[in-house]
Amino acid sequence: IPRHGSGIYELEESDFDILQLPKLDFAYVRSGSRKLDTKVGFEKDAYVTHWLISGWTNSGKTNSSKILLGVTLKGDGNSPFAGGIVIDPHGEYYRDLKAFNTPNDTRIVHLTMSPDSNDENEKSLHIPLNILTPNDLCEVKDFASETQIPFMWACRKLHRNLNLNGPSGSEDEVSAQKEILEKAKNWVDMILNCDTQLLMRALPDYGQQSKGDAIIGAVKRRVRGIIREDSDIWLEEYYPIIEEVIEGTTRGVWYVLDVSRISDDTSKLLSSLFSYKLFNAYKKASLEDRKAWESFKPAGVLIEEAHNYLSPEESSKGNTIAKIAKEGRKFKVFTIVVEQDPSGIDQRVLKQIHNKITLQLIPKDARALTETTPYMDELVDKIPYYEQGEGVFVSTGSFNFALPVKFPHISEWLDSNSELCKKCNNKKTFSSDKICAACQGKKKRDDIRSMM
């Protein structure tokens, strides 16, 4: 029987040379279940767009996220490609990625409830209450828009005016305002620590309303439910943690917000707070100080369990994460969305994401992705059977096809991407001067002694 087609053979590394794949060390090309030696990455320009890393439990999605951050932190050797924040619900990211830090170069910082005093890059996760706005609280609780939200803004405005200008108004109002200043250091304290009658005296508009006490009581209960659940995290005094995070991000530093020991409501509040402040700072700079904005490193926001922020219901509310997913790219702010249930994410958001790493998924979620992702139609029946670490990578800014990939374990990736210290020839380092943290630390201590 005459042959009607060419022979079949297993792919080799040389077969991919013609494709000129980007070679940032990200993952290996996969042929079936066989990992090839060919490494693949993405175009640097394509990096600053939104990412989706999706996979079922134990598919390796957090490991893949760590490798993506590792590529970012490694950057071009001298500095990372971007900075940003990681909302870490399980306390997993810093442990592996702190390998990028040296005494002379901090690239990742751990914000946690229990920092290690021996690690100068671990810091306490404490947030001053006075930086919160009513909008922040509305991210996690439903407040009545016609009554409760205006009351919170009135409290915030009053407390700010008292600090700037002192008490004013009728004799009774002045007396009430002085008492508020003694009891409350910020507007949230004012709601929590001042009784209803005192608030009605200080805010006579609510004292004259027939339902004023009911409005105040409802707000007190909701705010107390948010703040008291994780009281250790909140500070009464001002501390510039947000400013530090924004400034560090512009230089390419990543901040891991370890929310593994706090409630879901507080986690969501912190995620929205940091994301909003970061996005707003970049947006403001792009409009008011273009030269400074152009010098900023891109800013990323990595969110796990993203359906809590990007479901159709949440997205329609216009929350901060959804806003960044829709508008962030024009201001150099992007999201890294990590999710095991992509069918629960708003389709409008999925269409904005151009870099997608798809690991093992159940059929329903595989179908949801193929509907919003080019080149994946023929893979919908294969995705549910991927092994751990196996997946398909689509980056429409880097290449025009779906690429089968295999991710190494993060420890393997770190080992293969670091170099031996040129001083001790023993420990490995990511430092651009090829000197390990131990040797840098010794030199730093010697320099200090020489100055004493």
UniProtKB/TrEMBL annotation:
<keyword id="KW-0547">Nucleotide-binding</keyword>
<dbReference type="GO" id="GO:0043138">
    <property type="term" value="F:3'-5' DNA helicase activity"/>
</dbReference>
<feature type="domain" description="Helicase HerA central">
    <location>
        <begin position="40"/>
        <end position="276"/>
    </location>
</feature>
<dbReference type="Pfam" id="PF01935">
    <property type="entry name" value="DUF87"/>
</dbReference>
<dbReference type="GO" id="GO:0043139">
    <property type="term" value="F:5'-3' DNA helicase activity"/>
</dbReference>
<dbReference type="GO" id="GO:0005524">
    <property type="term" value="F:ATP binding"/>
</dbReference>
<dbReference type="InterPro" id="IPR002789">
    <property type="entry name" value="HerA_central"/>
</dbReference>
<dbReference type="InterPro" id="IPR008571">
    <property type="entry name" value="HerA-like"/>
</dbReference>
<comment type="similarity">
    <text>Belongs to the HerA family.</text>
</comment>
<dbReference type="InterPro" id="IPR027417">
    <property type="entry name" value="P-loop_NTPase"/>
</dbReference>
<protein>
    <submittedName>
        <fullName>ATP-binding protein</fullName>
    </submittedName>
</protein>
<keyword id="KW-0067">ATP-binding</keyword>
